[in-house]
Design a protein that fits this description.
Helices cover 34% and strands 33% of the residues. By secondary structure, the protein is α+β, with helices and mostly antiparallel strands.
Length: 116
């Protein structure tokens, strides 16, 4: 199974949601990831949590992931959420300005607050 950060990078490039000149190594350093226990949550529960937070660009039922963006403080964090073996993996990337607001980390926290 592909690393979630690598998958986010590939889908972000494919859908033109990350800068075209951003290299994968730099992207990986700026990407926040987290793994949380799914308990009895389903793939549809994940979708329900994402709806209203931003937009879902791609749904893959075979690999059990949603790719899109989560809106945080007027900006968008490119994100992917994947269900794997009773765990939820989430990765988010947001381009930061001079003043770091930790938007990717905030996007993950926002998703988690909607999930439970």
């Amino acid at each position: 199974m592909e690393n979630i950060t690598t998958l986010l990078y590939k889908l972000g490039k494919k859908n033109h949601l990350i800068p075209p000149d951003l290299k994968e190594a730099a992207f990986t350093q700026k990407t926040e990831t987290e793994e949380i226990e799914a308990f009895d949550l389903t793939f549809l529960n994940i979708r329900d949590a994402l709806i209203g937070l931003g937009r879902i660009v791609e749904e893959n039922k075979e690999e059990q992931y949603y790719f899109g963006s989560i809106q945080v403080k007027g900006s968008n964090a490119v994100s992917i959420v994947r269900l794997v073996d009773k765990k939820i993996e989430i990765a988010a990337y947001a381009k930061e300005g001079l003043i770091k607001q930790h938007l990717a980390q905030q996007a993950i926290q926002l998703f988690k607050s909607r999930l439970y």
